[in-house]
Amino acid sequence: MSPSRALALVVLIVAGVSAGLSGQAPAPAAPAPAQATPDPAAVARGRTVFTTYCAACHGANGRGGTEGATDLTRSSIVTLADGDVQFAAFLKVGRPERRMPPVALADGDVGDLYVFLRSIAPAPGRGGARNMMINALVVGDAAAGERYFNGAGKCATCHSPTGDLKGIGSRLPVAVIQGRVVYPRDNGNYPPSFNSPPNASEAPRTVVVTLASGEKLSGKLMWLTDFYVTLKDDSGLLRTIARNGDTPSVVVTDPLQYHLDHMRVLTDKNMHDVTAYLVTLK
Prior knowledge:
Number of strands: 5
Strand content: 5-15%
Strand order of the largest sheet: 4-3-2-1-5
Helix content: 25-40%
Number of domains: 3
Structural class: alpha+beta
Shape: globular
Radius of gyration: 21 Å
Order of helices and strands: HHHHHHHHHEEEEEHH
Number of helices: 11
Largest sheet: 5 strands, antiparallel
């Protein structure tokens, strides 16, 4: 991975993002909320459970190991503060298609493992990522970025330098602008988290659920996990449907899908050039 691509991935995590590229500069970071101190005994027991059942694939520090397994310290299920409800449910079924078998643990062991994993996960709002966001430098070619914006990048199809992007160079830090070029969804998180309420300021995702009977339910996607999908239909009614593998069929449509698809072909040069161009829009 090139240094600039690595920077882009950092930006994905830290950039304040709303629908499209327009928006206001994020407010200054508030102090990180106080974290409840985990029970040291539970952490110690959880470490033992982790070493016995998990470390072979996920590494001694939970960050993936030589097998390339998931970094558990950044897992959305681990970091979800729901008292291990979804974590426990996930362990019972696993994800066999990704070489993650079900893990049969006593309830107490599950709770201890959850406490241990959360104890090694990075605390929200910590680290130097925000400083990187604020102090990022413009390294691209603005003229080339303008050509890409209006040409091959197809940015001008949805965005306008005199419309939604007017003054973006004055409103937002450089790294935030770059983050929105790459991925303007869910506060810059990647991959997107479906198991939290949607951001009302973003273009909503829609979903179609096809039941075994053939009946189709559709509406705005509210939550989606391995175990259930919740949508809000046109009447405003929330409907939650249990999932078992690929049943029922769930098809999500994201109005910002172009940005996701474009990420596969966006080069470091084009990314930095477009950023340099957008910075000139004062």
